[in-house]
Amino acid sequence: MRSGRGGAERGRNGGRGIAQIHPRRKSLFDQDQVIVKRCHLWRRLHECCLLMAMLVLAGSSESPPPSSSCYLSSPSRSRSRSPSPLSASPRRSRRSSVEGPLLAREQEEGWEALQLRVLELEKDIVQAKKANKDIAAQTERRVRAEFMEEIDKLKAAKKDLQLDLAVSRHQCTQHLGTIQKMTGITENFEAEIQQVEEKLQGHIDELLLKVKEKEAENARLRKSLEEFSSRDKDN
After folding, report:
1. Higher pLDDT, 173 or 64
2. How far is 117 from 173, CA to CA, in rounded Å?
3. Dihedrals φ, ψ of 12, to 5°?
4. Are the C-beta atoms of 30 and 14 separated by less than 8 Å?
5. What's the CA gap between 45 and 39, in Å, rounded?
6. Which of 114, 95, 108, 117 is nearest to 64 (CA)?
7. Which of 76, 119, 121, 201 is the most exposed place for a label (fewest CB within 10 A)?
8. What is the greatest pairwise CA distance in the chain?
9. Which of 4-13, 28-37, 161-170, 177-186 is predicted least confidently?
10. Which residues make Cβ contacts (< 8 Å) with residue 101, sequence separation at least 6?
11. Angstrom distance (rounded) from CA 96 to CA 192
């Protein structure tokens, strides 16, 4: 039992150190501690059942317990204590009359020790059950708090995402309005450019007509000049 308690304490200390290094895995080490304590509880229950079985067997049998009958293990003494009419003597009868109360006293002391051990084990079982309930409640509260913390974080992240989505939608709406305005301005520019091109084409046509008229007039003037020059030569 001491080795089990020492192992549990070492497990608790080791788990606490590792939990300080890795805080996210603290719940896993706490669960390991709960499993270790439950194993100790089942071990104590097993010991209690064995002791109860020993008490029942000791009560049902008429022979003394093994602790009080250790001196009967040798075959010489068992042969010497075998009931034979040839070896019976008053000295041996007196010895058996003296050993009877001693055996009864040893048996009573063994029973009392077993009963005390059973009571101690029952107390340990009650304490272990209470500690198990406390650990289970603490683990449940801690796990619930961790889950609530994670849920709060997820809710906050969801709110942030919704806010980012609303901002993105607003910006997209603004960009769409700007694009629509630019599209309208571009269409207006195209119409104005087409009108200007048409006006320029009209001016170009008018200028070309004027140039043709000037060229025709220049041709007539050249012709008249040539006629005047030929007349001057003839005169």
Report:
1. 173
2. 82
3. -65, -45
4. no
5. 10
6. 108
7. 76
8. 207
9. 4-13
10. none
11. 139
Across 55-59, 71-75, 96-100, 178-182, the highest mean pLDDT is recorded for 178-182
Give me the helix-helix angle, 26-60 and 90-234, nearest 10°. Answer: 160
Q: Which tokens belong to 44?
A: 């104590």
pLDDT per position as a tens digit, 80-126: 444 444 444 455 555 556 566 777 777 778 788 888 888 888 888 88
Beta-strand (E) ranges in the chain?
none
117/120 Cα distance (integer angstroms):
5
The H or E element that residue 8 is part of is: helix 2-21
Supply 145's token pair.
């708090």
**Alpha carbon distance 26, 61 (integer Å):** 53
Task: Output the CA–CA distances (angstroms, integers) from residue 97 to 65, 80, 81, 147, in the order listed.
Answer: 18, 16, 13, 74
Higher pLDDT: 37 or 8? It is 37
**Which residue would you say has higher pLDDT here, 47 or 146?**
146
Determine which helix (DSSP H) or strand (DSSP E) holds 177, and give its type and residue range. Answer: helix 90-234
Q: Which residues of 3-41 are buried (b: 16+ CB within 10 A; e: fewer)?
A: eeeeeeeebbeebeeebeeeeeebeebbeebbebbeebb
